[in-house]
């Protein structure tokens, strides 16, 4: 029973911290300061996730390796030069 109470307490604490962050982002002055950092973080997380998880799994499929890397390069070109 103690573990259940601990799990619920920590979950509530993390949820409250996230909720406070929402109120901080509602202020336009604060949002203008950190929007570039948040966009950079999200782009880095997406690219990191692709390289660390999705591409190795794609290479294990029966699809040709050349086609997978062609799609990868096309994705980068469309993402950065669109």
Q: How would you briefly describe this protein structure?
A:
This protein is mainly α. It has helices at residues 2-26, 28-59, 65-80. The protein has one domain (2-80).
Task: Kindly describe this structure.
This protein has helices at residues 2-26, 28-59, 65-80. The longest helix is centred in the middle third of the chain and has 32 residues, at 28-59. The protein has one domain (2-80). By secondary structure, the protein is mainly α. It is flat.
Estimate the mean pLDDT confidence.
83
Helix segment tally:
3
Residues in helices, as a percent range: over 70%
How is the biggest beta sheet arranged?
A: none
Low-confidence stretches: none
H/E element order:
HHH
Please tell me what the overall shape is: flat
First-to-last CA distance: 54 Å
Number of strands: 0
Radius of gyration: 20 Å
Structurally, the number of domains stands at 1
Strand content: under 5%
Structural class: mainly alpha
Question: Topology, pairings included?
Answer:
Blueprint: H1 2-26, H2 28-59, H3 65-80
Structural descriptors:
82 residues; flat; 3 helices; 89% helix; mainly alpha; single chain
């Amino acid at each position: 029973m103690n573990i259940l109470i601990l799990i619920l307490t920590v979950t509530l604490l993390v949820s409250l911290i996230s909720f406070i962050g929402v109120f901080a982002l509602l202020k336009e002055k604060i949002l203008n300061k950190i929007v570039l950092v948040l966009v950079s973080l999200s782009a880095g997380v997406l690219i990191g996730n692709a390289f660390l998880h999705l591409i190795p799994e794609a290479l294990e499929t029966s699809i040709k390796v050349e086609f997978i890397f062609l799609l990868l390069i096309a994705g980068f070109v469309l993402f950065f030069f669109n």
